[in-house]
Amino acid sequence: MTTQELVAQIKKKKSFLCIGLDVDLNKIPPHLLKEEDPIFAFNKAIIDATHHLCVAYKPNTAFYEAYGLKGWKALEKTIQYLNTNYPEIFTISDAKRGDIGNTSTMYAKAFFEDLAFDSVTVAPYMGKDSIEPFLAFENKHTIMLALTSNEGAFDFQTKKVEEKELYKAVLETSKNWKNSENLMYVVGATKAEYFAEIRKIVPDSFLLVPGVGAQGGNLQDVCKYGLSANIGLLINSSRGIIYASKDEDFTEKSKLKAKELQKEMSKILSSRI
Ligand SMILES: O=C(O)c1cc(=O)[nH]c(=O)n1[C@@H]1O[C@H](COP(=O)(O)O)[C@@H](O)[C@H]1O
């Protein structure tokens, strides 16, 4: 999917919501455990109930890898279900990869070609030659960690290296990489006070913003400085939406949670588009 197509979807749905499909079998409604593939059954139900309220889904691969082959199969079925039934949806494989060049190429093939996701998350620590193999894929997006939502972000990312905070160096340096137009960045919703500085460096890039909901981040605070001329935000909530209820009514409750965020987004967008 191109960035223009993503922006068109955001404008059409009046939403820049991304729903995180982080499936934990201990948290899903117990009646689904009788299904042949409970992970996929849960995802399908959530997707069917919420697809009109969001523009992206983000399965975090850890939640599938934890269940071995069955988990990976459920991930494959989920992306196939999305690509077949809702091709307008932007898909993010949250895998946080990155390695020496030839290994990164194989990671990129796994997520862009075999599974056919639109994007994958990567960690910047190994530098340019670990990320450029992902950027080489046309109409695919590489979402690099910049300033993460967790407390540990302060261990390295905000520390100064040669007078500059590391997250700023990551943003600035990566702008010079080959095919950098295929880059998006992760910035945590819990770090709202950093968005003004971040937008000075990457005014137009899309930012994937996790941390709304269970981690306490706030949508209004993020939007104050996070929105770009082209909207440029995908706000993710996982647990806050998908685990709204453990009962038979779980899809209705998830839909309501997604609707709350979409309504707020619609209001924010109405003054801009
Ligand atoms: O890359 C991510 O998506 C990510 C980066 C980050 O800084 N913080 C963060 O929470 N995430 C992911 O975003 C999701 C957040 O889930 P909830 O806290 O349940 O909404 C999880 O899949 C995290 O792994």
Automatic annotation (TrEMBL):
Q: Which residues form the Orotidine 5'-phosphate decarboxylase domain?
A: 16-254
Record the organism. Answer: Polaribacter aquimarinus
Active-site annotation: K96 (proton donor)
Record keyword Nucleotide-binding present: no
Q: Which lineage is the organism of this entry classified under, starting from the top rank?
A: Bacteria, Pseudomonadati, Bacteroidota, Flavobacteriia, Flavobacteriales
Classification via PANTHER family:
OROTIDINE 5'-PHOSPHATE DECARBOXYLASE (PTHR43375)
What keywords would UniProt list here?
Answer: Decarboxylase, Lyase, Pyrimidine biosynthesis
Gene Ontology biological process terms from the UniProt entry: 'de novo' pyrimidine nucleobase biosynthetic process; 'de novo' UMP biosynthetic process
- What EC number(s) would the UniProt record show? 4.1.1.23
Reaction(s) the record says it catalyses: orotidine 5'-phosphate + H(+) = UMP + CO2
Keyword Lyase in the entry? The reply is yes
The record ties this protein, via Gene3D superfamilies, to: Aldolase class I (3.20.20.70)
Q: What is this protein called?
A: Orotidine 5'-phosphate decarboxylase
